[in-house]
Structure formats: structure tokens, C-alpha cells
Amino acid sequence: MLQEPIFLKPVLQERIWGGTKLREEYGYEIPSETTGEAWVISAHPNGSSTVAGGEFAGKSLAQLWEDHGELFNKKTSGEYPLLVKILDAADDLSVQVHPDDRYAQEVEGEPYGKTECWYVLGAQEGANLILGHNAQDKSEFEKMVDDGEWEQLFRYVKVQKGDFVYVPSGTIHAIGRGITILEVQQSSDITYRVYDYDRRDKDGNTRELHLDRAKAVTNIPHEDVKLDFGTIEKDDMTIQQLVKEEYFTVEKWEIDGEAEHSISADFLQADVTEGHGSIEVAGQEYKLAKGVHFILPNGVKDIKFGGDMELIVSHP
């Protein structure tokens, strides 16, 4: 059994709405001034993270999942289940919706739909996002879409650093300008665009919309999901559960000093979002800092932390 963290190098993705925060805030070597996404823990075919060191250095996470299922206590032949990203929205993202598993499998031939959640890493004053819609039934929804009544249709929510948002499949949503988020999601890249502000790409073309499929998968009427989980404090560590749903559990761990912790999940994904410190696994210490991402594989049960840092931790 591997008794060490698996550190990962992110895959950087250019986007029409991206910016430079992934370089400025996290020190990543971005490919352009419009870099929107860092896929920091990913085994998806459109961008698989690679192992940064240790026994499996240079291998992709997809290869590890395929060839070393024991690292994850892998029980099925399916795809790696989750994907973690950091998104820098220098401009508004398109308004979009994602299908559930059944629709993704039957219509797209893909293994997973896309339920996701967002932890807000930063937000300029007054920043907001779109979450849900105001239509009361399917006919009203379709009429508002067909008539382009976007301001009346979309629900706007103000956010600030530290907020958490759960976005089940079928939820109309968009991240607004000036927001940086860490996203934990099912490992899916299926997006149906509903509205894109009539933007044009570098070649002067408007981006494709997917209105028929969006109408087919959108939850109507929209219902907010109520999340209310407790906080555990032990030693110099605070654990706040953010969501525990069908596809993933996500927690925020805050370390202020030294703490020991035992792991019961098959494996853990961890993203250092603030500060710096260290983790000790099997008597070996590893340095951690903002922008570092790693997996604690199956078999790692007891860990020790030191330092002053915040991590977002997730598992299937």
C-alpha cells in the first residue's frame, strides 16, 4: 500500500472569459492572459492531471485509476468519478445547465452527468452569480427562453469569499465576473449553453447555444437546496462539512497549529486554498502551500498537520 500523498500538476485551460489570477494568486504557468480554468485533480480525457513526484511521477491520474485501482479501493470498471477545478472568471461565464447521469448516458454516450459545487475563493465587491430561474412551469420557461427574457428569467445571488454553493444537475447557473471559485464536480465536461451575452470569439463567431437540450434537462420549477451541516473542532483543527450528497462529500479543513486526523474514506482529494504548513504521513513530512493539490490514497489512515492553512477536502 502506498503510504504517501500523490501530488498533482494542474492542466490549464484557456477560456474566452478567463484572466490571469491563476498565475497571480496560485503561481501557475498560464498559457495566455485569458486562462479560465486549472483542472487541478482530473482524470477526464479532456485534461488529466499528472503526478508531480514520487513513485508514479509523470503518470496521469487517468493512468493511475486504470492501472492501480488499489490506490482508490476501486470497486467498478467505471471512470474516475470526480473532477476539481479552480476557475478565474475575469468576465461573466455563459448561462448554462448540465444533464443528470441518465440523460448523459442515453443522449451523449458519456458515463456521468454533472452535479457540481462551488467554494468561493475570492469575489470583487458586488459580485453575483446566476443560480436557478423564475419560471413556474415548463411552458413559461420555454416561452421566456424563446423570447429572450433573460433578466426576468434568471435568479441572481450575491456572493463573497468563503461562500459555498451546491449546483445539482438540471440547475440553470453562471459564475459572474470577478469571482474565483474552487469547483468539485462529477467528472463530466457536458455543458448546454442557454445564453452567452451575444459574445463573439476571436474569429468573430457567436458561440453555439444548446437550447433544445437545455429545455430537456432543466429542473422546473427551480428549488433551492438547503444545506445545514455541523462543524467539528479537535486539537488545532476545525472541520466544516459543506455538502454530503449522492456524488460527493466536501469539507473545509482549517488548521491553526498542530492536529492529528484519521481517514475513513476510500481516498481523499485535498486542495490547499490558503496559507501554508505540512502534512505527515507514515512518519514522512511533506510541505503544503496555497495552490497545492494532492490525493491521499487508500491505505493512508492517520495523518498529522502543522501550520496555518485552509484545505477543501472531497471524496466520492
TrEMBL record:
Superkingdom of source: Bacteria
Swiss-Prot/TrEMBL keywords: Isomerase, Metal-binding, Zinc
Active site residues of this protein: 193
Domain Mannose-6-phosphate isomerase cupin positions: 238-316
UniProt xrefs under InterPro entries: Carb_Metab_Reg_Kinase/Isom, Man6P_Isoase-1, Man6P_isomerase_Firm_short, MPI_cupin_dom, PMI_typeI_cat, RmlC-like_jellyroll, RmlC_Cupin_sf
Residue intervals of the Phosphomannose isomerase type I catalytic domain: 7-106
UniProt-listed Enzyme Commission number(s): 5.3.1.8
One function term, GO molecular function aspect: zinc ion binding
Top-rank EC class of the record's enzyme: isomerase
A single BP term in Gene Ontology: carbohydrate metabolic process
PANTHER family in the record: FRUCTOKINASE, TRANSCRIPTIONAL REPRESSOR MPRA
UniProt record similarity statement: Belongs to the mannose-6-phosphate isomerase type 1 family.
Protein name per the record: Mannose-6-phosphate isomerase
